[in-house]
Amino acid sequence: MTQVFNPPVRTLMGPGPADVNPRILSALARPTIGHLDPEFVRMMDEVKRMLQSAFQTKNALTLPISAPGSAGMEACFVNLLEAGDKAIVCQNGVFGGRMKENVERCGATAIMVEDDWGKPVDPNKLEAALQANPDAKVVAFVHAETSTGVQSDAETLCRLAAAHDCLTIVDCVTSVGGTEVAIDRWGADAVYSGTQKCLSCVPGISPVSFSDKAVAAINARSTKVQSWFLDMGLVMGYWGENTKRAYHHTAPVNTLYSLHEALLILEEEGLENAWARHREHHTALVAGLEAMGLSMVVDADCRLPQLNVVSVPAGVDEAAVRATLLADYNLEIGAGLGPLAGKVWRIGLMGFACNKTNVLFCLGSLEQVLREQGADIVAGSAQGAARAAYAG
What we know:
The chain is an alpha/beta fold. It has helices at about 20-30, 40-55, 70-80, 95-105, 125-130, 155-165, 185, 210-220, 230-240, 255-270, 270-290, 320-330, 355-370, 380-390, and strands at about 10, 60-65, 85-90, 110-115, 140, 145, 150, 165-170, 190, 205-210, 305-310, 330, 335, 345-350. The chain folds into 2 domains: about 20-265, Type I PLP-dependent aspartate aminotransferase-like (Major domain) (Aspartate Aminotransferase, domain 2, 3-Layer(aba) Sandwich), CATH 3.40.640.10; about 270-390, Aspartate Aminotransferase, domain 1 (Alpha-Beta Complex), CATH 3.90.1150.10.
């Protein structure tokens, strides 16, 4: 007989979802009200304001899509591209490849700018592609590539695109709340994120933001947006500034409570404090990993503090290590994707999970499991190195 599902209590230190703050879990349990209730509309306006703060933007068209980050990505592409358009897509990991797929499904042509996995997008390659394709409408790139743990220079890439009269689509799924996202300073035109990473919220919502230039491009379309659900012109009837909202869809009321609480927590901490916290614990984690003799995949100057990609030692069964960590320690870390599959682990330090207790727990557990597998590592040094890093 089927029984009530009670999930195990895990420590989530993979690429997402991350551990959810108990305050956010509590917010989910608040009474459900109608998605057109005046009190819910008031909360919607607060969510928009706090999203603008998290994105560092004044964009009026800033809102949460009622679906996960992949839908936020699709919303950006289907609203800005029409059949026959040309988009330059920078790929240095899995999610640049998903951008290409979106371009093609819009009936547009993708011009690829490719860099090695684990390396940031090369602005010189983008500049060459822009010069070779003066008719390009959009430049798309991933700010924080979740598959590799590398961060690209969004401000430089957006500036190059603007100089060639291109709109920019930027994936900030893993960066919002963990490292700086500055839409207005960058000059980015369409940005999407997710709730399940550094915001420490539950999965299922995708914050997006569109610049005035992007809105003008949407309004100038010669064809309808191919997705009814993600058509920003329709969605804004519900998320707009008017007190009388037009029904578009039944919003996930309780999930939006949780996003409101997540953004409130971020606001209370302060953006710069949140970024500094992620850097501090990242520094300690890396010190511990390297003290064991493990090596980081991404160079320090472009490494994401919230997503740490470490090479698997020779002779170690990486999947067996993850399985043992999960079974014996209730600790989740992530596997590699694409060409990095079987070669790396992805260790997340995101939002609520980014703390000293988790860093020390992860290092101690990983060291023990590696020793059991007979890995050639320096035993007993990881936690000490991390503590030394915390001591400054």
